Amino acid sequence: EGITIHPQFAHFFLSFLRGDYNYLHMLSDLSTLDPTLYSNLMFLKTYDGDAEDLCLTFTVATDDFGGNREIELMQNGLNIPVTNSNKRRYIELVAKHHVCDRLKEQSEAFTRGLWDVIERSWLQLFNEPELQVLISGASGGGIDIDDMRANTRYAGGFTSIDRTVHRFWNIMSSLSDEQQGLMLRFVTSCERPPPLGFASMNPPFTIQRMGILRDSERLPTASTCFNLLKLPTYSSEKVMKSRILYAIESGTGFELS
Hints:
Blueprint: H1 11-18, H2 26-33, H3 35-45, E1 59-64, E2 67-72, H4 87-101, H5 104-117, H6 120-123, H7 128-136, H8 145-150, E3 153-155, H9 163-174, H10 177-188, E4 206-210, E5 221-223, E6 228-232, H11 237-249
Parallel strand pairs: 3-4, 4-6
Antiparallel strand pairs: 1-2, 5-6
Helix pairs in contact: 1-7, 2-3, 2-4, 3-4, 10-11
């Protein structure tokens, strides 16, 4: 559909895609999926007191569309208390539920679809980090500013030779790779440039003029559905850069103006 995305998969899910997940790593993988739950399980593992005092059973609580229910981790788990003698088994089953069982249906559907397109043996040629790069592209590396500039459109009275536009491109060239990615994500919702270049971006990257009377009047804003940057006519390049950096690094949403 011509939409650029940058999916980031968990390490263990990439192993699922390769078809050779090591189930001995479930507990350590849980730390990347739910750090709080992992910390709680580690507390239980090293707990010196009587585990029965914690009033745990072989169940996990789940919230399905606002409805709370308990899932038994083993047969009759609701009536089996966690004790010092079985707490390791409880920890293993909780990790298995969250890393494997809870995601089983979705993971299997995803992998079946992927394996219909790409042979599983081909995916096994890559380790997990390499597979992530294969799916999402390499992170970092900056943006081809010349290509971006050559394929940018202007609106609201801006032209390619406008002083404000010239300042903007000077700023873009001076930003770090990370800041350039933040700028692109601010406007397009994805920090990754189009794989086929900015000429393939649809809608095209566009800068729209926003007239202001004072530099403090407004910040740069964007309409990500249209890849549209609404750029105020700041009084200097220094002011524009500071306002752009504030906007792209704030991590806020529609309330920013």
